[in-house]
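Recall from the previous chapter that SMILES is a line notation for molecules. Here it describes NAP.
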Amino acid sequence: MSDGATRVYLTGAGGFVGSNLARAFAGHGADVVAPTHGAVDLTDARAVARSVAAARPDAIVHAAIWNDPAALLTDRRRAWSSYVGATRHLADAANATGAHLVLVSTDWVFDGTQGPATEDEPPNPINPYGFLKAASELVVTERAERGTVARIAGVQGLHLAHRNTPRRQDAGFGYLVASLVDALRQGRRFTVWDGPGLNVLATPTLASDAAELIWRAVQRGVTGTLHCCGGEHADRVGLARRAVAAFGLDENLLAVGPPDPAALPAGGVPFDTRLDATATAAALDAELPDLDTMLARLRAELDPSRSAA
Ligand SMILES: NC(=O)c1ccc[n+]([C@@H]2O[C@H](COP(=O)([O-])OP(=O)(O)OC[C@H]3O[C@@H](n4cnc5c(N)ncnc54)[C@H](OP(=O)(O)O)[C@@H]3O)[C@@H](O)[C@H]2O)c1
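With both inputs in hand, we obtain:
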């Protein structure tokens, strides 16, 4: 498959991860078809089938999710149809058009005691989000004729569709570095949470790096389960300290403290979700960046006048 000839049907392109995928794919000359949620609701099987058939993609990359962790517990039907149903509709559409289906998934399919989890470690989710993602993974592995599960983890980076909205700290790692950089650059104190009830250990991943790995999977037609993550594990406080150093920030503004109990989701979150990506790196012939490389790249993304590592 040559770069210019690749047509990718991308879901969730208006989101954090999806906006990075869209940019990376376009940067490789791909023809990206990315209908908005308003244009195609993925819970509508007919709309998905029509839209994918019209696009005739080489690959479908599915990054959309209903991103409302609390509501997943209270509206289980909508949750099931938004995660599992949507993935099934895309698998059927992929099979009908001969496309390769790539599901963007998560390290939270593991229970927090399995790290560093290899690609073939059986998922054992402990909360509704992890359960719905693990069920969606099964749809891809069992139903798609050419299917890939691309797990990402502790995602750092810039939301390219909503640039000025770094998400607040939560029980996971997502956006942690951008949030603390935002605070410290404004002279505000940032308390990185540590303690029980949190995802404390993970394998931080730059969204744009994950996008490059997923592009490689598409180009090479790699199927199966991949860990499209960074190359170095970290705990929350360690990541925060390395970020302060990498961005040349005032370490006196960084504090460590317990989480806001209101921010801890019901059902809990997995403690240690480190991913082992040795097999993925070999399958994609890719070198996974260490933390300092990842942070230097993130700094270059945040400050485009700087050159990337
Ligand atoms: N962020 C992380 O730290 C992280 C970590 C591990 C894995 N992931 C995975 O990465 C993927 C993307 O996550 P994200 O953080 O980028 O999410 P996000 O920023 O909330 O984006 C989700 C996107 O999905 C769209 N969407 C939601 N429901 C839809 C539907 N029924 N039909 C069509 N589009 C729909 C949303 O559109 P509207 O906004 O218009 O509704 C939005 O554009 C997910 O699969 C997630 O599991 C993320």
